[in-house]
Amino acid sequence: MKQFMDQDFLLSTETAKTLFHEHAAKMPILDYHCHINPEEIAKDRKFENITQVWLGGDHYKWRQMRSNGVDEKYITGDASDREKFQKWAETLEKAIGNPLYHWSHLELQRYFGYHGHLNGKTAEEVWNLCNAKLQEDGMSVRNLIRQSNVTLLCTTDDPADSLEWHKAIAEDDTFEVQVLPAWRPDKAMNIEKPDYAEYLVKLGDAAGMEIKSFGDLKAALKKRMEFFDSMGCRVSDHALEYVMYAPAEETRIEELFAKRMQGGALTKEEVLQFKTAYMIFVGKEYHRLGWAMQLHYGCKRDNNVFRYDQLGPDTGYDCIDNYAPSAQMADFLNALNATDQLPKTIIYSLNPNDNAAIGTILGCFQDAGTVGKIQQGSAWWFNDHKAGMTEQMTSLANLGLLGNFIGMLTDSRSFLSYTRHEYFRRILCELIGGWVENGEYPADMEVLGGMAEDISYRNAVRYFGFQL
């Protein structure tokens, strides 16, 4: 029997162990998509206790606590932080096979030096150990990033954001890690939302203009893109129900925009036409700027309306949506490619059944300008566990070139989540090592080691063009 989460955790072959320990584990981290708050980096926040780090805003954990019958008081309610931590510890001991079990213990090992098991009985010991450790200067936000060997991270930012905290970080020569904005313009696209007109006022103020037409919207977005670009932005991100393609003439889009601004309601087809025009526009701009475009789709959000009305979005009530017409995604990419304005694109679906469809679409739009120009993103959200990562990388290997994969991203609000990169790298090395030891690829450790290092770090550096 192997020891619990020892140095060879998830590594069952000698090839896998060599690839991980001598290659992947040594690489820095480039976190090209996360949701951490740049203000906390600028102010170098220190946390008072482990509950603040682990349970504040982490809907992954909240879902599991609810599944364990924990009252909402101990999840998002007014219970003490110590009580909330106890309920989480009691939940975690039942989470066998869940990535949260592995992530939590990796974080305890790497940041707190704790190699035991967190459960209801050990909660007091772990609570005291972690809280004492968190008071040390080495556990401030900036030092956690340094400990994690991060060279660059990209936050997630609205076009109307002033980016004041990014500016403050960039001007602070005591912090060597690059913290760059990433463009997340969903609010400017979601014309069906009740507060759309109010948002356009905010966006217009940021751009120094009034938005009265679709043409104005495009002009305002271009102004804000130029500003983001000047602040080092090199990547965009879109949260879509699915990648739609319902083209319409420009005059039709202006009519739809005017209708909505006058208080009218758009039909579902009209919304799709507007969003298609919007996505075509921004896609062309990304190509002009040399940005990468990330497309996240396949999520049905806020399903529990009772709880949504109480707690709001991003509180653990989302699920996989199995409606994702791959033909429309192909048509969307083709529309950009037809005028040679298709940007580097990373495609993520929340539905693992879409892996093969994505894998075949990638091959339709690659070209010599960028190695692996169209990427399948790492296993996302409900799929970022051992089985999901293995399935995603196996599908990519079967249908494309795994060696050009840009690897893992944190996609988290927590400064301790960088252990997910270690988790990913162990799974990657186990997968490759298994193929080698089964005689499916030669045991050329120079090539294999370079591949593990590339997927862990270097491919992403090259793909986004970051100066590191």
Work out the strand percent: 5-15%
Taking all residues together, what is the mean pLDDT? Answer: 97
- How many H/I helices? 20
- Give the % helix: 40-55%
N to C succession of SSEs:
HEHHHHHHHEHEHHHEHHEEHEHEHEHHH
Could you give the distance between the termini? 42 Å
Largest sheet: 4 strands, parallel
The whole-angstrom Rg is 23 Å
> How are strands sequenced across the largest beta sheet?
4-5-8-9
Low-confidence stretches: none
How many strand elements? 9
Global geometry: globular
Concise description?
By secondary structure, the chain is α/β, with parallel strands linked by helices. 49% of the residues lie in helices and 8% in strands.
Question: Which features does this protein show?
Answer:
468 residues; alpha/beta; 4-stranded parallel beta sheet; 20 helices; 9 strands; globular
What's the SSE blueprint?
Layout: H1 14-22, E1 29-31, H2 38-42, H3 50-54, H4 59-67, H5 81-92, H6 99-112, H7 123-134, H8 141-147, E2 150-154, H9 164-170, E3 178-180, H10 186-189, H11 196-207, H12 214-230, E4 235-240, H13 250-261, H14 268-289, E5 292-297, E6 299-300, H15 305-311, E7 319-320, H16 326-337, E8 344-349, H17 355-362, E9 374-376, H18 386-399, H19 419-437, H20 445-464
Parallel strand pairs: 1-2, 2-3, 4-5, 5-8, 8-9
Antiparallel strand pairs: 6-7
Provide a descriptive summary of the structure in words.
There is one protein chain. Helix content is 49%, strand content 8%. The chain is α/β, with parallel strands linked by helices. Helix 1 (14-22) packs antiparallel against helix 19 (419-437), helix 13 crosses helix 14 (268-289) and helix 17 (355-362) runs parallel beside helix 18. The longest helix has 22 residues, at 268-289. It is globular. The model has no long low-confidence stretch (mean pLDDT 97).
